[in-house]
Design brief:
4-stranded antiparallel β-sheet, binds 2-amino-4-trifluoromethylsulfanyl-butyric acid, binds cobalt (II) ion
C-alpha cells in the first residue's frame, strides 16, 4: 500500500494503488485510437483528415481530448512528419509515399490522462527510416526497463542515450517526458539523456511518460513561426515513441500498451 496524496521533495506526486486503474482506462483508450488510425495513414491522405478521425473517436468514447484548448492548441493530435521532431500541426498537406510520421494523442477519461505516440509510414518504409524507427522504439523500451524503484531518472535517460548513440543517432535535448496523472504535465521533466545515478529516485506510485525523440543527424531543433512545429535544424529525419507508465514495487506498468500489438508500424 502506498501513501495518500504524498509528494516527494522534487514535487513528484505519489499516486495510490487504486489510481493505476484510472490510468489504465485512459491509456487503453489512447492506445486503441492509435491502433485504429493505422488504416487511415496512406499516401494522398492529409494529416488534417487523420486528426478529424481521431477527434471523432475521442468523442465517440465519451472522453475528452487533452490537447484541444491546451495553451491555444486546437487539434486532437500532433502529427509530425519526417524532419518534424514533435508538435506538428495537422493540416491540408498530403502524405507522400515513404513519409514517416509520429501521431501523438492525449485523452482524458474520468479525469485521468493517457498520453502516447508512435510512428507510422505512408506507403513503403524507406530503409534508413526503418533503422531509425527500430532504434527509437527500442530506446523507449530500454528506458522503461530502467524504470524501477531504486533507480533514478538519470538511469532512464542514460539507457536511452547510450543505445541511440551506439547506433550513431542522436537524442533530442530540447523536449522531454513528464509526470502526468490527473494533470497533463507535472514534475518531473523526464530527460532522454543523462548519467547513471543522477536525478530523483524512482518510487512506487510515480506516473510519467517516456517519449524519446531520436534523429538520424544532429540533435538540435528549432520551432517554426507557428510557435508549435519543432524540426531538426539539419533537416534530418526524426522519430518518437511515447508511453505513459506507472512505477510499481518491482518495475513499471505500461498504461498505453497497444491492445492489438500494433505499437510498431511493422507489427500487426
Ligand atoms: N502529447 C504531447 C506530449 O507528449 C503534448 C502535446 S501538447 C499540444 O506531451 F498542445 F501540442 F498538443
Ligand atoms: Co507526453
Ligand atoms: Co504525447
Amino acid at each position: 500500500m502506498i501513501g495518500k496524496g504524498r509528494q516527494t521533495r522534487d514535487g513528484i506526486r505519489i499516486y495510490e494503488t487504486a489510481d493505476f486503474a484510472g490510468m489504465h482506462r485512459a491509456g487503453a483508450l489512447a492506445a486503441r485510437i492509435l491502433d485504429e488510425v493505422a488504416e487511415h495513414v496512406f499516401p494522398g491522405q492529409s494529416t488534417g483528415e487523420i486528426d478529424r478521425l481521431i477527434e471523432a473517436k475521442v468523442d465517440a468514447a465519451g472522453a475528452k481530448s487533452a490537447t484541444i484548448g491546451y495553451r491555444g492548441y486546437q487539434h486532437a493530435s500532433c502529427i509530425s512528419v519526417n524532419h518534424v521532431v514533435c508538435h506538428g500541426i495537422p493540416g491540408d498537406k498530403k502524405l507522400k509515399d515513404g513519409d514517416i510520421l509520429n501521431i501523438d494523442v492525449t485523452v482524458i477519461v474520468d479525469g485521468w490522462f493517457g498520453d502516447t505516440s508512435r510512428m507510422y509510414v505512408a506507403g513503403k518504409l524507406p530503409r534508413k527510416a526503418e533503422r531509425l524507427l527500430q532504434v527509437t522504439h527500442d530506446s523507449l523500451m530500454l528506458g522503461i526497463e530502467a524504470a524501477k524503484p531504486g533507480n533514478t531518472f538519470g538511469d532512464i535517460g542514460h539507457a536511452i542515450q547510450t543505445y541511440a548513440e551506439k547506433h550513431r543517432m542522436s537524442v533530442v535535448r530540447d523536449f522531454c517526458g513528464h509526470g502526468l496523472g490527473q494533470v497533463f504535465h507535472a514534475p518531473p521533466n523526464v530527460l532522454h539523456y543523462g548519467r547513471p545515478g543522477t536525478g530523483a529516485k524512482l518510487e512506487e506510485g510515480m506516473f510519467f511518460t517516456i517519449e524519446p525523440m531520436v534523429n538520424l543527424g544532429r540533435p538540435e531543433t528549432k520551432v517554426l513561426a507557428d510557435d508549435w512545429t519543432a524540426v531538426t535544424r539539419d533537416k534530418s529525419l526524426s522519430a518518437q515513441f511515447e508511453h505513459s507508465i506507472g512505477i510499481t514495487a518491482t518495475g513499471a506498468e505500461i498504461f498505453t500498451l497497444s491492445p492489438n500489438g500494433k505499437f510498431h508500424p511493422t507489427w500487426g
